[in-house]
Amino acid sequence: MNDDSMYIILVGCGRVGAQLATMLSQEGHAVVVVDDDPDSFKRLSENFSGSTIQGNGIDEDVLRGAGIERADAVVTATNGDNTNIMVAQIAQDIYEVGRVVARCYDPVRSKAYEMLGLKTICPTTVGAEMLRETIVAEDAE
Fold first, then answer.
1. Rounded to an integer, what distance in angstroms lies between the CA atom of residue 15 and that of residue 67?
2. Which of 2, 77, 93, 108 could be joined to 12 by an S-S link, Cβ 3.0–4.6 Å?
3. Average pLDDT of span 23-45
4. pLDDT tens-digit profile of 50-60?
5. Dist. CA 101–CA 115, nearest whole Å
């Protein structure tokens, strides 16, 4: 790890989580991926250099096993908004992790969670914005 590297816990090893975990580990960050489905870890690239823990990301014992007390960042990328928000709140409010980001599919929920001080990324909104920009940009040519 270099001086700029972080210790990152990523909860959820679906397509997005696996790709993000691989990207972060290839950049030199120490990455621990948590997922309750052991088969999900098969999605990780052979270039992934981090570690995996099977378990529920809401379980504080699992999070402690992943090293949440020393985490620089926690990312939640499960397919459930409620799980993502709960893990984010645990990381931010109980363990005071400096960088916490939760994926949230529902744009209405995403705004409400941001009002609670949680940083969220809403793929629904991001995707719509990117599609809109592509349409508008092509229209301007």
1. 23
2. 77
3. 97
4. 999 999 999 99
5. 14
Helical pair 107-115 and 81-89, crossing angle rounded to 10 deg: 10
Nearest to 71 by CA among 56, 92, 86: 92
Please provide residue 110's backbone torsions phi and psi, each rounded to the nearest 5 degrees. -55, -45
Count helices and strands (H / E) in the chain.
Answer: 5, 6
Six token digits for residue 31: 């990455």
pLDDT mean across residues, the chain: 92
Q: Residues near 116 by Cβ (< 8 Å), separated by ≥ 6? A: 89
Q: Is the dihedral of CA 33, 38, 39, 42 positive or negative?
A: positive
Alpha carbon of residue 61 to chain centroid: 19
Length of the chain as a residue count:
141
Cα three-residue angle 56-60-65, rounded to 5 degrees: 85
Q: Per the structure block, which two tokens stand in for 49?
A: 């250099």
Dump pLDDT digits (tens) for 61-101: 999 999 999 999 999 999 999 999 999 999 999 999 999 99
Of 128, 87, 89, the C-alpha closest to 105 is: 128
pLDDT at 139: 60
